[in-house]
Amino acid sequence: MKFGIILPVEGNVGVKGKIDPHLTLDVGLRAEELGYDSVWAGERLLISQRLEPLSILAGVAGITQTIKLGTAVLIAPLRHPVILANQLASIDLVSNGRLIAGLGVGAERIKPEYDSVGVPFTERGGRLDECLSIMKKLWSEDTVDFHGKYYNLVNVSMRLKPKQRNGPPIWLGGTKKVSLQRVAKSGDGWVPFEILPQDYAVTSKSISDKALKNGRDPSKIERSLYITINVKEDVTSAKNEAHKYLESYYNAKFASIAKFGIFGKATDCVRAFEDYAKAGVETIIVRFASFSNPVEEIELFSKSVASLF
Questions:
Q1: Which of 29, 81, 93, 295 is the most buried (most CB within 10 A)?
Q2: What is the pTM of this model?
Q3: Which H helix or E strand runs over 241?
Q4: Which domains does the chain have, with CATH numbers?
C-alpha cells in the first residue's frame, strides 16, 4: 500500500481563514522526508480561496527530488486541451517525470465555475473525453489533426514533450457508469471518492471487465482512493472537528460526514485501510480534516498508520 497526502491549499480552513503557501511547501518537503509516495492538490476557481494546483505543484517540484506530484483532481474541461497539454508537459519536465495527472469534471456545486469561463456544464463529459484524446496525441505525435464536437485541430505541433514517454499517467475519478467506461478506455489510474470497501471491490471489477473489452490489461490501471480522515483517541472529538472542517472547506452544511471517510482512533483507520487493501486499493490519498498543524498531522499519520502497511 502506498500513501499520498492532500496538500493544504484551501484557505477556508487555513489560519484565520487564509492560505499559507509557505506552509504548503513545507508540508510537501516533509512528506518526502517521511517517505510518502505522493502529494496532491485539487482545484477550485471561485467557490473557495484555493491555490491553483499546477502552480503549487511546480513549487513543490522545485524543493523535492523523488516524491510524486498529483492533481486530485484538475477540472480538465475548464481549460483548452492544447493549453493543458503544455502545462502538464512543463511540470512533468520541471519535476523530472514525477507528475500524475488526476483529471475529472467536478460535481454539480462547481457549475458556476464552468459558467465563469464560458464552458457549458452539460458538455463537461464530452469535453473531457476529447481532451484526453488530444493531449495523448500532442504528447506522442509530431503533428496532430483532430476533429471533434468541441475541439478542432489542424496540423498542430507541440514541440514541448513531457519527460515521461507519451505523457504523465492520467488518473480519472468517478463511480458512475460513464466515468468507469472512461477509466477503462483511457485511464492509467482510478481515483474515486466517497466509496465503501465492499463497493470499491465490485466497481473495480467492473473497470477490469470493461478494460478487457477495450483490449487493455486491467492490472495496468492503478487503483487508488481519495479519503478524508481525522485521527484522535477521542472519537467524538475527531468527528466533531472533521465535521466543522469539512463544512468550512466546502462552505456548506452537512447533516452527516460519514460518507467522507474515517474519523476516530488510529486502530480504526488501520482496520479500514486493511479492508480497502483487500478490495484492491493500491494507493490511498489522504486528506486530513483537522485544524492542527498539517506538518504534525502527516508525521503522526506516518508513525501511527502508514508505517503499518
A1: 81
A2: 0.97
A3: helix 235-250
A4: 2-308 (3.20.20.30)
